[in-house]
Write a structure and sequence with these properties.
- The chain is of the alpha/beta class.
- The protein has a single domain (8-209, 264-269), classed as Rossmann fold (3-Layer(aba) Sandwich).
- It is built from eight helices and eight strands.
- Strands 3-4-2-1-5-6-8-7 form an eight-stranded mixed beta sheet.
Length: 273
């Protein structure tokens, strides 16, 4: 069991990110808890289908240059479904994925693919400047040592290469207690800290957008609409997220605190040498 923080307010305030300064032992414990958690929650379900195509297309894929990406890296990309909208622009794909479910997979939607087991330390087993595109869509909030992993991604990213990021920017509740529908330790990344981590990894933020405006997403979900795969809802959500960005708080204590955007997309670029 991971030890609890001595000052939880430091994390709930958004001043620090829980897990980002863990020892190797604590990182290993976290890794074992999260290794198959997402796969068990979603992928192994017979009804699973990838639900973020419209959201990804609107907030990040449309900002990519129209070019062929020779070497692409996906962090925690599971079955690789997130790449389907740009699959015809990818020559080779590598996926760092902890789940054992994909060890024998050799291609994703027809693209030659290699699955690699992550190193618990966060080290990536690739040479510098290898990839021209890296995607971590809904992944970093599942790992402890976010700032280190971002630096490793930057090291492996080619000059002028792009990194696509999507993560919640709210606490997602008190992670010390079980939360239905969430893995054990996932927590959002405070927006200000996220910016600092990307910049500390020597990448420039070229584009950012907020989404998942809480009241709208809850309403749409209740009426049975797949919000993240509906282009109209995605656009409406982006408008509300912008309008209420002033109310952003990391950890909601009152109802009014929850009237806010909850997720950020970032398109970052590694400068040319």
């Amino acid at each position: 069991m991971l030890s609890q923080p001595t000052d939880i307010d430091e994390y709930f305030s958004g001043r620090s990110l829980y897990g980002d300064n863990f020892s190797d032992t604590k990182i290993r414990e976290w890794y074992e808890d999260e290794k198959e958690a997402f796969t068990d929650l979603y992928i192994r379900q017979k009804t699973y289908s990838y639900e973020y195509h419209a959201l990804n297309s609107y907030h990040c894929f449309c900002h990519l240059p129209r070019q062929m990406f020779k070497d692409v890296l996906g962090l925690g990309s599971a079955k690789g479904d997130e790449f389907l909208p740009i699959i015809n622009n990818i020559k080779r794909l590598t996926i760092v994925e902890p789940s054992e479910l994909y060890r024998d997979v050799k291609q994703v939607h027809g693209v030659p693919t290699e699955y690699v087991q992550p190193n618990i330390s966060g080290d990536l087993p690739f040479v510098e400047n290898r990839f021209d595109l890296i995607a971590a869509l809904g992944v970093l909030h599942h790992i402890p040592n976010v700032s280190y992993v971002l630096k490793e991604c930057s090291r492996c990213l080619a000059p002028n290469g792009l990194m696509l990021l999507r993560d919640p920017i709210i606490s997602m509740g008190d992670w010390r207690h079980p939360r239905p529908g969430l893995t054990k330790w996932e927590r959002g990344i405070p927006l200000g800290l996220f910016h600092k981590m990307v910049e500390a990894a020597d990448m420039d933020i070229k584009y950012q957008s907020l989404c998942h405006f809480s009241p709208l997403i809850r309403l749409i979900t209740k009426v049975g609409i797949d919000a993240d795969n509906n282009a109209f809802v995605v656009r409406a959500d982006a408008i509300f997220a912008r309008l209420f960005s002033w109310n952003y708080q990391y950890h909601a204590k009152k109802f009014v605190d929850k009237i806010r955007p909850t997720v950020v997309y970032i398109v970052a670029k590694k400068p040319a040498i």
